[in-house]
Specification:
Blueprint: H1 2-10, H2 16-31, H3 37-55, H4 58-71, H5 76-88, H6 93-102, H7 106-115, H8 118-126, H9 128-145
Helix pairs in contact: 2-3, 3-4, 4-5, 4-6, 5-6, 6-7
Length: 146
C-alpha cells in the first residue's frame, strides 16, 4: 500500500529526492533485521526499481544496486552499469566511494572516504551504503577468527 501511494503521489519525477530519502531510511531499517524484514525487503526492492525507472539518475541506480547487493541479486548488467556510472562521474567522490563498495574494492573505498572533507565524510558515513563496507569488514574479521 505504501508503494502504491508513493507511485500515485510522486510519479513524473515529483519530489523524487524525498522518496529517495525514504528509500534510504527503509534500507537502514531492513539492515537492522527487524521483525518486518520481509515487508521491508519487498518495499526496498520495489521502491528502488520504481525510483530508478522514474528518474534514470545515476545515484538512484546506485541505490537500486545497493538493494540488489543486499538481496544477492546484483548481476553482470548491474555491474557493467555501475562501472559506466563510475566513468561518467570521475569527479564525484561520493559516487566513486559507493561504486568501490559495490564492486568490493574496500581499500579504494576507504581511501576515497579518507579523502573527503569532514562534513562530506560524516554525511557519507550516514548512508546505508557505508554499512555494506562496515559489515564486510566485520564479516571478514569473523571469518578470519574461525
Amino acid at each position: 500500500k505504501i508503494i502504491e501511494d508513493i507511485k500515485r503521489n510522486h510519479s513524473g519525477n515529483k519530489n523524487i529526492v524525498y522518496v529517495n530519502t525514504f528509500l534510504l531510511e527503509a534500507i537502514k531499517a531492513y539492515d537492522e533485521y527487524s521483525p518486518q524484514q520481509m515487508e521491508l525487503r519487498y518495499l526496498i526492492e520495489n521502491l528502488s526499481e520504481w525510483l530508478y525507472n522514474e528518474s534514470k539518475e545515476d545515484y538512484i541506480f546506485l541505490n537500486l544496486a545497493q538493494v540488489k547487493y543486499r538481496l544477492g541479486t546484483l548481476d553482470k548488467y548491474d555491474i557493467d552499469k555501475i562501472i559506466d556510472i563510475g566513468k561518467l562521474n570521475k569527479d564525484n567522490i561520493e559516487i566513486q566511494a559507493g561504486i568501490s563498495i559495490l564492486l568490493k574494492k574496500k581499500e579504494d573505498a576507504k581511501e576515497l572516504i579518507k579523502d573527503m572533507n569532514s562534513e562530506l565524510k560524516d554525511l557519507f558515513m550516514s548512508y546505508p551504503i557505508y554499512d555494506l563496507l562496515e559489515n564486510s569488514e566485520q564479516q571478514n574479521t569473523a571469518t578470519n577468527k574461525d
